[in-house]
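WARN no homologs supplied; continuing
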Amino acid sequence: MVDKRYRAFISYSHRDREVGERLHRKLEAYRVPRKLIGAMTREGSVPQRLTPIFRDREDLPTSGDLSASVETALERSRFLIVLCSPAAATSEWVDKEVTRFKKIHGEDRLLGVIINSDATAGVSESEKLFPRSLRYRINADGEISDIPAEPLAADMRETGDGEKYALLKIVAGLLGVGLDDLVQRDQNRRNQNMKIATAGLSAATLLMAGLTWFALDARTEAQMQRREAESLVEFMLTDLRNKLETVGRLDALDSTGEKLLDYYAAQNPDRLDAFSLSRRAKAQLLVGDIDQRRNDLVSALAAYEAAAATTDELLSREPNNPDRVFDHAQSVFYVGYIAHQRGDLSTAETNLGEYLDLARKLVAIDAINPKWRMELAFATSNLGALEFARDAWPDAVSYFEQSAAAWRVMRNADPADDTFAVQYAYALSWLALAKMEQGEYADANAVISEQLEIYAPILERRPDDTQIIDPVAVAKRRLAETSLAIGNTIDAGTIIEEAKRISDRLVARDQDNAFWKRDAAQVEVLRSQIASLDNDVTKETETADRAVALAASVVKMDASDLSAQKVHARALARRVLAGGDPLVRNNAAARLLEKFEAARSADRPDFDIIGEGGLALGKFYGDLGNETRSAEFYRTALDILQNDQNRLSATERFTMYRLCKVTNNNNACEPIANTLKASDYNHPLFVALQDGAP
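OK structure emitted
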């Protein structure tokens, strides 16, 4: 058996994983200029390609020693490429790899690549970015000495070489050729378009136009052109997408996704290799993501199913390739997620179960890979969400606690990595929500407070990142809700106004984002409830009107979205209860009546809509003097909730208690009141009703 040899080994901190993956792809895809192939340099004959490049994807084993596979790869690698950053400078993993490589190959075949830096007072640039093993030479015993080295590094930062020329410097070093030879070739191959594209959002159109040209030109240098096209595809699916998501631009993301699908539609799928098929699946997932954010769940499902078909084909070709397993896991997850959103719990269970199986397969392939452990944590959380949808609160809490515990371990192992921190906070969000449904409001309040503490420093560093702003707005709203439930009305009022400021900012940024509008509607519903407790009639009606308008616009996007329908029903109920303009109130009652009838006739009744709708409609007809009709709504809602009390959330139990009180059903009221009091439920309205308030 011939030992596999590597052109280079890429060493990097786990926190720089994405940069390492991107550099690995670009180096292996790089085509050496024809005029250089075969030329003799200090590195021997110049090859056509730089492959293979070894990229270590393992975390540091618990023993603190390098794994056998890493040791072997270091021995068989001609160069060591070190990604230099503050994370790398303090990484024991990177330090051990550099030290080991120097022991085997000496000092002369190390290539540093500066990828980012943070301002650190009193620390030199070298100390801040380079691990000690790169800053100092080795002694005769093969240990790191106190003799300074002078590490040379390409600088990917915009203030340095920039990503493009840094890549060319690395390639020149690996080949042993002059940089000028590669720069000329680079200019001839239209990489200037890439530089223009990365300069800003407005250049996305140029990329798309270039993409079409590459796809259609099949004459001269067809293979080289396709490779350039695929490079642009990779850029659009990674760097450009990340930039657009951060600033919340659905319109540009949509154009990017559609152009990518147009590109692949022009290709013969039977002739696409695995990398091209993988990118096509990513493009399909991107389009599905955009449709989902716009609440077009039917189109989103079609895009996700198309992606699943593509990734399933890839997995059938390489069933034990972890990258193929991972890609298919993402596809089936989104199919299950949309089914969950539409209330199809059977389909959701099938796909989320498959996702869990695939996550377990990834861990079985490589148990210490943090990326695969993350997938297993996600899969556990998904099952919690499924149990949550089934109103099985204890089971949901159990799953979410497992998921949160897994993320906590990963976060504590690497506290400077925002990825782990954000995912831990997200897991806490689900845990808090499940505890709220169980009536454990004090515990939920504490969990949400921890969640916001995690987000605070990240938001300070990334104040315009909508992927952080959005969950902060949701957490603020829930913190206000739990504060109200435990009796802290003043805190609830202050916090909900903070949530409003954030949600208004998000909606103003993108009117097409259904998630943000739905959350903003829920903020207005809670503001209206608090205004009612404060006897501020004007604010109560104004906030209810805003809630109705926001929720209605989301439902208009896709009527099959059950969560949007629920928020709309709650907003309508709040508007009916608020009173005010008779015409506005009448219209709200008419629409609420439609939702109430649909909810009570469904195979799986929605207790929120039935309970709150029954209360609002009962009061509406009572105010009109139609006591018979009023009593009918109160009784119907109470009967439905009484028939399935075990599935009721704490909020729904409180609604049932209100229905009991308004119908003078003391036999039903007392046990519910005892249950709520046992959970320290101190909502001001609950306290008032116990004291005999009407």
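The longest strand covers residues 77-84.
OK
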